[in-house]
Amino acid sequence: MFGKIMVAIDGSEISMKALMEAKRIAVSHHATLRIVYATPDSDDTDQEAGLRVLAQAKSAVGDGVDTEARVLHADAIYGLNGIAESIANAANEWGADLVVVGSSHRQGLERWVIGSVAEQLIAKIDASVLVVRPS
Question: Which residue has the higher pLDDT, 123 or 104?
Answer without folding.
Answer: 123
